[in-house]
Amino acid sequence: MSVELPEAQILTEQMTDSLPNKKIKSYDIQDSAKLQKIGFMNKKLKDYERLVGCTVKTITHRGNTIRIQMNKKMNLVLCPDYGAQILFHKNDGTLPKKHHLKIEFTDGTFLTIRQTGMGLLYSATDQEFKDLYVVKRDFSDIPSPVGEHNFTFERFKELLDAKGQNIKAAIVGKTAVVVGLSNAAFQEIIYKAGIHPKRNTSTLTEDEKHDLFDAMKHILNERICSGGKDNWINLYGKAGRHTPVMGPNMKGKDCPACGASIEMIAHGGGQVYFCPRCQT
Ligand SMILES: [Zn+2]
Predict the structure, then answer these.
(1) What is the CA(230)–ligand 1 centre distance, in A?
(2) Centroid of ligand 1 to alpha carbon of 158 (angstroms)
(3) 1 pLDDT more than 80
(4) Residue 72 lies in a domain
């Protein structure tokens, strides 16, 4: 499954509890050719060697890009966009069979990363960090839908009104007015807001914009509080508890609010499930 802002935030918090002051002893890379070819891993595998001897300082994220900042001006950048298992291990007893990157710390603990879908894991100097595509995308001026106090309804409305575009394009991808969300969050948010996936933002009423803003905050905060989506595994290998209110898990089911059969359309490069009665 895709990793979105709530899961990236949980991973960041858990890494902040577990990783600072750990020194990298060694690394191991497997199955990297495909990810290297599309630029999601460093072209030169030797670039990862620069991490050896570095000590983890701080972990931050914006959108779904996570920055593990080290001393010696080095960073490990993780952007698990389309799915990854990012796991911390207290010892070598729980190491997975497969990984793309395995990092061993000098205290005998490990961090392993296995992309299950497309996503980035990159060794970068502070300078290289700024030039990464995912960093430009997520560490940008575009507001974060949760966790930033200056992101008010007024600001959201202003950004929505600035471009009349399909509601999905306003929430997900290059033209989105917020960072960190993909198709999964989109389906939940517009279901909760009662908005049809094909709507254009220029047709939204003031009330609908409010509903959209409130639904976005509610869904994302709820997902963070519930430890992430129920088909996702956190840094310690534990599954989240958030069951999506709308999405593929609702296939063939009836809307819990009105009893209508849930429908699906291909829309904006993905499948979108929705209630034809509640979402207008
Ligand atoms: Zn309904």
Answers:
(1) 23
(2) 29
(3) no
(4) yes
**Are residues 83 and 128 both part of a single domain?**
yes
What is the number of other CB atoms lying within 10 angstroms of the CB of residue 177? 21
Angle between helices 183-193 and 206-225 (to 10 degrees): 130
Residues 52-92 have pLDDT tens digits of: 999 999 999 999 999 999 999 999 999 998 899 999 999 99
Tokens read off for 125: 């100097």
Tell how far the Cα of 254 is from the centroid of ligand 1, in angstroms.
8
In angstroms, the CA 38 to CA 121 distance is 12
Find the 168 Cα to ligand 1 centroid distance in Å.
19
Pinpoint the alpha helices (H) of the chain.
Answer: 5-18, 33-37, 126-131, 133-138, 153-162, 167-171, 183-193, 206-225
Boundaries of domain holding 191: 153-226+244-274
The rounded Å distance from CA 256 to ligand 1 centre is: 7
Distance from Cα 259 to the centre of ligand 1, integer Å: 6
Q: How far is the CA of 180 from the centre of ligand 1 (A)?
A: 27
Closest to 66 measured CA to CA, from 21, 24, 4, 116: 4
Same domain? For 119 and 175 the reply is: no
User: 32 pLDDT exceeds 80?
Assistant: yes
Q: Tell me phi and psi for residue 70, to 5 degrees.
A: -120, 175
Dist. CA 257 → ligand 1 center (Å) = 5
Q: Which of 111, 138, 165 is the last residue of a domain?
A: 138
Please tell me the distance between residue 145's alpha carbon and the centre of ligand 1 in angstroms: 25
pTM assigned to the model: 0.96
